[in-house]
Design a protein that fits this description.
With 61 residues, the chain is of the alpha+beta class. The protein contains three helices and two strands; from the N terminus they run H-E-E-H-H. It has one domain. It starts with a helix and ends with a helix.
Length: 61
């Protein structure tokens, strides 16, 4: 399966991929999405502490 097939299936919701395993750690895709949102907000200099706290609590729940 090529990269374009993987992305197409992922966007269409046909993928059965629940997590990515890196060095023995399971990183679920929703956690990866939350981490990327937190990283982008940090890079943009957003100073909304309540938003960041809510996203971090979602990450740990």
């Amino acid at each position: 399966m090529g990269t374009s097939d993987f992305l197409y299936n992922l966007l269409q919701g046909n993928s059965n991929l629940e997590y990515i395993e890196i060095l023995g750690y399971k990183i679920y895709l929703d956690d990866l999405l939350l981490l990327s949102i937190i990283f982008c907000l940090y890079q943009e200099g957003v100073e909304d502490g309540l938003l960041l706290m809510c996203l971090i609590l979602l990450l740990f729940s």
